[in-house]
C-alpha cells in the first residue's frame, strides 16, 4: 500500500550554467556573473524531477519549490513549476547565504509547511559545499539520507539507496525525512511549452528574511577567488636520457643515478 | 506523427533585435487600438542573447521610436561613442590615419552608443515580457508548416531527445506546432527557415544574390590605464590581401573592456584564406597590440553578416508571414550597422500585421508602403552602391567612390552598381592560389581555434543527429578536398570541419559540438552542399556580453 497525500518541499539554487566557463573578476573578489547564463543547479533539478515522479506515482500530492536568492531566482522556480511542481516560494536574499543560513531558513519554512519529504541536491555546482541537507536534518532533528540514487516511499517510511565510496548503501527511516540527490537518481525531463506557459500562472509567493524572522550569520567571509594555475605547454623530447635529465634539471625530480640506491 | 498544436495571433522565430522589436511593437499597437493580441517568440539559444554576436556601435534611432523613455527604463546603452578613428593598416607595423573628412559620412558615429547587442536583446526581452509577450528560449523552430493553400500556418519546434540515429531516447519530447495568423521570421543572417521561404516563394526574384561576410569578435579586459570609453576605431588593409576584402573594429566599451574583431567578406576566392587566422594575426599590429598587451581575452564568437543591402533585399512578405531583419538582409553595409535597421523592420512588420488583421488579409501587404515611407527605405536606398563598389573596385578605389557618393551625392549617385555573382561561386582551385602560411599563435595576443571556441561556452548534447547535414556525403571527396583543399577547414571559425589523413586517405570529420551557429558553412561551401539545421534546443554558444 502506498502512503498517500504527502507533502514535499524541494529546495533549489540558481547557479552558473554548467556549460559556462567560470571567469574570475579582475580584482579576484568573486566570480564574474554579469550576463552569464544561469540555471537550476543540476542536482536540484534531479530533486525536482524525483518529487514530480513521486507525485505522478500518487504518493505526493503537493510540491513546494523554495529558492533563496535575489528576484531573478524566480526564473529557476518557474522552471521547476514547469517540470511539475505545484507552488513556488522565493525567499528574498541579495547576498549569497551560507549553508547554515540556508538550512535555518528552510527550517523556518518547514515549521510553517510541515512537509513529509524534504528534497535537496547533494551540493550546488558553484560552491560545492555538500552541507545544507545535513545541517537541515540536524536542525529539524529528523533522519537524513544523502547522495540518494533510489528513493522508495512506503507506509510512512523512506527506503533510500545511497551512493557511497565503492558501492551502495540502502537505509530505511521514518518520515519526515531530508534526502539529498545524487546524479544517478533520475534523468530530469524536458519542460514542454504548454507546461512552461501554465507555470507562469502557478502560485509563487515571496517572503523576506524579516518575514521569517531570520538574521543571516556573518561568520564566513569571502576573501578571494582565483582561477586554477595555467597548465604549461608540453615539450617534445627525443630520448629517455633527455627525459631523465630534463626531469632532474627543470622539474627538480630526484632520480637516482644508475646503480645508486633510491 | 500527431503533433500537439498551440495557437497564437503572431509567432516570432528568433529573439534578436528584429523579432523582439516586432513583439514589443505589436503589443504596444494592440494597447493603443484596445485590442488583444497574443504573441509568442521562440529562440534557439538557451536564453535570450546567448546566440547574439555583434560589434556593436548602435544607432538608437529605432529604439528612440520604440521606447522613447529607454534611458529611464535603463536600456544597456551607456557608453556614447565619443571619438572616431579610421585607419588603413599598410603592413604589419604601419598604418595611415584617414582624416574624418575623407571618410564616408556613414562612418561617423556621433550620437551612437557602444553596447553589447546580446545585452540589449536581454533588455528588450524584459520589456516584451512586461507587455505580455510569451518568450520561449531553448526552442528552435525546425520547420515551416504550411496550410494546404500554400500559405504559412506556423512552425514546428525541434524534437528534444533524439539520438544520433534519429531514434527517440528515453525522455524524448516531440516538437509541437505553433500556429498563428502571422509568423515572423527573424532568425538573423541566413536563417535556415528564411532560406527555405525565399526559395519557396521566390522572394529573391530579380534581385542580386545576397552577399555575406563573416564577423569574428573577441572581448578583452584591458589595462584600465589604456582604456578610453567611447573610442571607436574602424579600418581595413593588412593582413587581408589579394581579393579578400573586409574591415576591422575596435571599440572601447565600459568595465575596462574592448570589443574587437574582423569582418571578412565571403566573396574571397582563395581557398587558403582563414578568416579566423586573419583575425588572430591582426591583433599583433601595433594599433591593436598597444591596447591588448597585458590584457586578457574573455570571450570569443563569430557570426555571418548579410550585407547585400538594397539590391539584394528580397520581397519581405508572403501569405501568412514576413521575413524581417538580417533574415531578409536589412543591414546597412555603408555603416556596418544592422541593429537599428533590423529593429525598424520589425516595427514596420508589426504595423502591417495589425493592418492586415483588421482588414482580414492573409498577407501583410501594407508592409511595402510602410517600408517605402520610412527612413529605413531611404537609408538602405542611399547605400545601395556601397557594397558593390567595394567588391568591384577593391577597398581603395571602392572606398574613394563611397566617400564621394556618400559625402557629395548623399547616396543618390545616378548609377546603380550591381554584384551578380554569389559568394560561394568565387572560390578558385587551391593549386592556382597563393597558399597562406599563418603564423603560429603566441598564446598571449593570438590563440588557436580550440581555446577560442572554449570561450564561447558552446555545447551540444553529444548523442543527437548531426545538425550539419551534407546533401551529398561524397561531394567533399570529389570536389572540396582534391580541388579546393576543403576550405571549410579554414572558413569555419570553430574547427568543426577537419580533414584527417587516415592511411593516406583523407576523411572529413564534422565536430558538430563545437558549432557556433555562425552559418558560414551554409553560405560559403562552393557546392552549397552543407545545410545547417537547428540542433536540440539550448545547444550552441552561451555568449555573455557579446
Ligand atoms: C561581428 C559583428 C559586428 C557587428 N557590428 C555591428 C555594429 O557595430 N552595429 C550594428 O548596428 N550592427 C552590427 N552588426 C550587425 C547586427 O549584429 C545585425 O544586423 C543584427 O544582429 C540583426 O538582428 P536580427 O534580429 O535580424 O538577427 P540576430 O541578432 O542574429 O538574431 C536572431 C535570433 O534568432 C535566433 N534564431 C535563429 N534561428 C532560429 C530558429 N530557427 N529558431 C529559433 N531561434 C532562432 C538566434 O539565436 C538569434 O537570437 C554586427 C554583426 C557582427 C556579426
Ligand atoms: S559549422 Fe558552420 S555554422 Fe557552425 S561554426 Fe562552423 S561554419 Fe559556423
From TrEMBL, chain A:
Keywords: Electron transport, Transport. Residues 28-216 form the Electron transfer flavoprotein alpha/beta-subunit N-terminal domain. Its cofactor is AMP. GO terms for biological process: carboxylic acid catabolic process. It comes from the Bacteria. It holds the Pfam family ETF. GO terms for molecular function: electron transfer activity. The keyword Chaperone does not apply. Belongs to the ETF beta-subunit/FixA family. The electron transfer flavoprotein serves as a specific electron acceptor for other dehydrogenases. It transfers the electrons to the main respiratory chain via ETF-ubiquinone oxidoreductase (ETF dehydrogenase). Heterodimer of an alpha and a beta subunit. This is Electron transfer flavoprotein subunit beta.
TrEMBL record, chain B:
It is found in: Membrane. This is Electron transfer flavoprotein-ubiquinone oxidoreductase. Its EC number is 1.5.5.1. One of its GO terms (molecular function) is electron-transferring-flavoprotein dehydrogenase activity. Keywords: Electron transport, FAD, Flavoprotein, Iron, Iron-sulfur, Membrane, Metal-binding, Oxidoreductase, Transit peptide, Transport, Ubiquinone. It catalyses: a ubiquinone + reduced [electron-transfer flavoprotein] = a ubiquinol + oxidized [electron-transfer flavoprotein] + H(+). Pfam families: ETFQO_UQ-bd, Fer4_ETF_QO, NAD_binding_8. Residues 212-305 form the ETF-QO/FixC ubiquinone-binding domain. PANTHER family: ELECTRON TRANSFER FLAVOPROTEIN-UBIQUINONE OXIDOREDUCTASE (PTHR10617), ELECTRON TRANSFER FLAVOPROTEIN-UBIQUINONE OXIDOREDUCTASE, MITOCHONDRIAL (PTHR10617:SF107). InterPro entries: ETF-QO, ETF-QO/FixC_UQ-bd, ETF-QO/FixX_C, FAD/NAD-bd_sf. One of its GO terms (cellular component) is membrane. Its main location: membrane. Its cofactor is FAD; [4Fe-4S] cluster. Binds 1 [4Fe-4S] cluster.
Amino acid at each position: 500500500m502506498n502512503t498517500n497525500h504527502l507533502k514535499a518541499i524541494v529546495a533549489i539554487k540558481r547557479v552558473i550554467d554548467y556549460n559556462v566557463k567560470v571567469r574570475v573578476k579582475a580584482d579576484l573578489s568573486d566570480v564574474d556573473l554579469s550576463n552569464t547564463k544561469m540555471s537550476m543547479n543540476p542536482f536540484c533539478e534531479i530533486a525536482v524531477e524525483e518529487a514530480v515522479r513521486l507525485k505522478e506515482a500518487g504518493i505526493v500530492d503537493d510540491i513546494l519549490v523554495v529558492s533563496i536568492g535575489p528576484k531573478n531566482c524566480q526564473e529557476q522556480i518557474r522552471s521547476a513549476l514547469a517540470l511539475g511542481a505545484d507552488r513556488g516560494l522565493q525567499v528574498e536574499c541579495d547576498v549569497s547565504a551560507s549553508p547554515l543560513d540556508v538550512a535555518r531558513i528552510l527550517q523556518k519554512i518547514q515549521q510553517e509547511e510541515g512537509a513529509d519529504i524534504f528534497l535537496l541536491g547533494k551540493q550546488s555546482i558553484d560552491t560545492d559545499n555538500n552541507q545544507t541537507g545535513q545541517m537541515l536534518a540536524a536542525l529539524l532533528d529528523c533522519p537524513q539520507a544523502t547522495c540518494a540514487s533510489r528513493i522508495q516511499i512506503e507506509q510512512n517510511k523512506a527506503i533510500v539507496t545511497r551512493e557511497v565510496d565503492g558501492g551502495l548503501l540502502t537505509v530505511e527511516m521514518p518520515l519526515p525525512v531530508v534526502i539529498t540527490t545524487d546524479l544517478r537518481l533520475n534523468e530530469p525531463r524536458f519542460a514542454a511549452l504548454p507546461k512552461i506557459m501554465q507555470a507562469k500562472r502557478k502560485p509563487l509567493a515571496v517572503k523576506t528574511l524579516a518575514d521569517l524572522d531570520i538574521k543571516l550569520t556573518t561568520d564566513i567571509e569571502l576573501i578571494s577567488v582565483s582561477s586554477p594555475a595555467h597548465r604549461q605547454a608540453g615539450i617534445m623530447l627525443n630520448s629517455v636520457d633527455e627525459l631523465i635529465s630534463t626531469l632532474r634539471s627543470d622539474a627538480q625530480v630526484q632520480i637516482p643515478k644508475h646503480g645508486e640506491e633510491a | 506523427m500527431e503533433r500537439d498544436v498551440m495557437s497564437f495571433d503572431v509567432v516570432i522565430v528568433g529573439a534578436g533585435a528584429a523579432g523582439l522589436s516586432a513583439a514589443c511593437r505589436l503589443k504596444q499597437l494592440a494597447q493603443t487600438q484596445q485590442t488583444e493580441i497574443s504573441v509568442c517568440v521562440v529562440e534557439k539559444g538557451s536564453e535570450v542573447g546567448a546566440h547574439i554576436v555583434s560589434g556593436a556601435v548602435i544607432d538608437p534611432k529605432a529604439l528612440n521610436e520604440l521606447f522613447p523613455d529607454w534611458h529611464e527604463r535603463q536600456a544597456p546603452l551607456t557608453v556614447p561613442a565619443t571619438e572616431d578613428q579610421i585607419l588603413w593598416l599598410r603592413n604589419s607595423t604601419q598604418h595611415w590615419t584617414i582624416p574624418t573628412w575623407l571618410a564616408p559620412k556613414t562612418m561617423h558615429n556621433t550620437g551612437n552608443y557602444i553596447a553589447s547587442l546580446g545585452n540589449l536583446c536581454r533588455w528588450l526581452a524584459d520589456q516584451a515580457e512586461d507587455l505580455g509577450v510569451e518568450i520561449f528560449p531553448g526552442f528552435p523552430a525546425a520547420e515551416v508548416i504550411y496550410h494546404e493553400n500554400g500559405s504559412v500556418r506556423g512552425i514546428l519546434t525541434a524534437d528534444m531527445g533524439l539520438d544520433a540515429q534519429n531514434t527517440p531516447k528515453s525522455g524524448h519530447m516531440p516538437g509541437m506546432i505553433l500556429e498563428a495568423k502571422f509568423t515572423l521570421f527573424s532568425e538573423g543572417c541566413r536563417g535556415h527557415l528564411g532560406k527555405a521561404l525565399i526559395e519557396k516563394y521566390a522572394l529573391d526574384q530579380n534581385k542580386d544574390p545576397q552577399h555575406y561576410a563573416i564577423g569574428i569578435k573577441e572581448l578583452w579586459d584591458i589595462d584600465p590605464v589604456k582604456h578610453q570609453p567611447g573610442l571607436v576605431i574602424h579600418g581595413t588593409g593588412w593582413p587581408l590581401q589579394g581579393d579578400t576584402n573586409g574591415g576591422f573594429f575596435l571599440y572601447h566599451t565600459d568595465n575596462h573592456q574592448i570589443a574587437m574583431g574582423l569582418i571578412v567578406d565571403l566573396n574571397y576566392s582563395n581557398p587558403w584564406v582563414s578568416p579566423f587566422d586573419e583575425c588572430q594575426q591582426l591583433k599583433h599590429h601595433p594599433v591593436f597590440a598597444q591596447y591588448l598587451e597585458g590584457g586578457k581575452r574573455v570571450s570569443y564568437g563569430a557570426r555571418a553578416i548579410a550585407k547585400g543591402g538594397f539590391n539584394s533585399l528580397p520581397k519581405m512578405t508572403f501569405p501568412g508571414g514576413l521575413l524581417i531583419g538580417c533574415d531578409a538582409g536589412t543591414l546597412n553595409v555603408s555603416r556596418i550597422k544592422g541593429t537599428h535597421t533590423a529593429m525598424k523592420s520589425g516595427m514596420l512588420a508589426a504595423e502591417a500585421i495589425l493592418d492586415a488583421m483588421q482588414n482580414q488579409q492573409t498577407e501583410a501587404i501594407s508592409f511595402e508602403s510602410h517600408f517605402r515611407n520610412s527612413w529605413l527605405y531611404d537609408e538602405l536606398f542611399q547605400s545601395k552602391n556601397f557594397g558593390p563598389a567595394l567588391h568591384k573596385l577593391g577597398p581603395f578605389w571602392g572606398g574613394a567612390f563611397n566617400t564621394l557618393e556618400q559625402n557629395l551625392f548623399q547616396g543618390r549617385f545616378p548609377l546603380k552598381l550591381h554584384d551578380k555573382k554569389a559568394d560561394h561561386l568565387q572560390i578558385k582551385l587551391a593549386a592556382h592560389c597563393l597558399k597562406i602560411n599563418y603564423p603560429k599563435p603566441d598564446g598571449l595576443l593570438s590563440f588557436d581555434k580550440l581555446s577560442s571556441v572554449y570561450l564561447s561556452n558552446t555545447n551540444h548534447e553529444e548523442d543527437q543527429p548531426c545538425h550539419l547535414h551534407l546533401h551529398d556525403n561524397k561531394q567533399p571527396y570529389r570536389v572540396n578536398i582534391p580541388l579546393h583543399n576543403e576550405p571549410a577547414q579554414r572558413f569555419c571559425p570553430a574547427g568543426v570541419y577537419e580533414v584527417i589523413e587516415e592511411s593516406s586517405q583523407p576523411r572529413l570529420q564534422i565536430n558538430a559540438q563545437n558549432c557556433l551557429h555562425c552559418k558560414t558553412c551554409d553560405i560559403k561551401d562552393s557546392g552549397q552542399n552543407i545545410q545547417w539545421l537547428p540542433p536540440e534546443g539550448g545547444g550552441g554558444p552561451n555568449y555573455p556580453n557579446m
